[in-house]
Design brief:
8-stranded antiparallel β-sheet; 6-stranded mixed β-sheet; 20 strands; 5% helix
Length: 295
């Protein structure tokens, strides 16, 4: 992978007679990191069949697909992560960004029309960058806050997770053809992947510190990445590789991060997490994420 860099000349400090000297500002370069949602080698969209997914090669349509990222950084030629200073807007705070692939159409009823597939920010200029790292999740200090009082993009009620006093880091939902058979003989329309911290105690509403025994944050490192030509894809074919989408094995339908939920084992394996303790199996490796050509 060819190293990429943009050289920006430092602005010359304009000295005025009698004025105190000030430290020169560090020049920066803008960066835009594109993300994608794919299935069977194609873009996954609302209202478009996803093709066969999972161990049963089940046909499905998309219902929802959103996830948060934190700790976004470019990796320099020496292998050191250089944090991206995020642009603050409706999709990003200074610490976290939301990727939203659903547009409220087709099977994504109840979603939002607006989408976001890009993380934007800046890094120091004049440096050769070779890779990318980020973590799927929301920082603890921001995770356990009210969606009603938080700034965007942390103000989305659909990504709140009140029973765990936090947020869904990942919300991916699909509707398999024929529905999802439940152990009690009933059927559910959707198979859910809701990833978030679990085993949490403490009430943030009363000022208590919230502690979670299983963080369930997903660190991803891509040693060779060129933002000019590549995008980071969450590949649904890979995510559901070991899952049977037309049946549920008990508990919450699909995987809602329960440490004893049999349906979560394959999902956590594809994310690169240990289901028992919520820690990365191999830090930086998450099979569900891959590089694809930038659209």
């Amino acid at each position: 992978m060819r190293l990429f860099s943009t050289l920006v000349t430092l602005a010359a400090a304009a000295g005025l007679a009698g004025c105190a000297s000030t430290a020169p500002e560090v020049a920066t370069q803008p960066v835009a990191i594109n993300f994608a949602l794919t299935a069977n080698g194609k873009a996954a969209r609302c209202g478009v069949p996803l093709g066969p997914l999972g161990v049963g090669k089940t046909a499905a349509i998309l219902r929802d697909a959103r996830f948060y990222v934190q700790d976004v950084a470019l990796i320099d030629a020496a292998g050191k992560p250089v944090p991206l200073t995020l642009t603050v807007n409706d999709w990003q705070t200074a610490n976290v960004a939301l990727l939203d692939f659903e547009d409220g159409s087709g099977g994504c009823v109840g979603g939002t029309k607006a989408t976001n597939v890009t993380v934007t920010g800046a890094v120091p200029a004049g440096t050769a960058y070779a890779g990318l790292s980020f973590t799927v999740g929301v920082p603890p200090a921001l995770n356990h806050s009210s969606t009603e009082k938080a700034p965007p993009p942390l103000d989305i009620a659909a990504l709140g997770w009140s029973w765990q006093a936090g947020r869904k880091f990942v919300k991916v939902e699909v509707d398999p053809a024929g529905g999802v058979a439940k152990p009690d003989g009933g059927k559910a329309p959707s198979w859910y992947v809701h990833l978030g911290s679990t085993g949490c105690s403490g009430n943030p509403a009363t000022g208590e510190n919230v502690v979670c025994t299983r963080s369930n944050r997903v660190p991803v490192t891509l040693a060779a990445f060129d933002p000019r030509a590549q995008a980071v894809a969450l590949d649904l074919s890979s995510l559901f590789q070991g899952s049977a989408l037309n049946k549920d094995q008990g508990g919450a339908v699909g995987c809602m991060s329960g440490p004893t939920d049999a349906d979560c084992g394959p999902i956590f394996a594809r994310l690169g997490l240990s289901l028992s303790d919520g820690k990365p199996v191999e830090s930086g490796r998450s099979p569900a994420f891959a590089l694809v050509a930038k659209p």
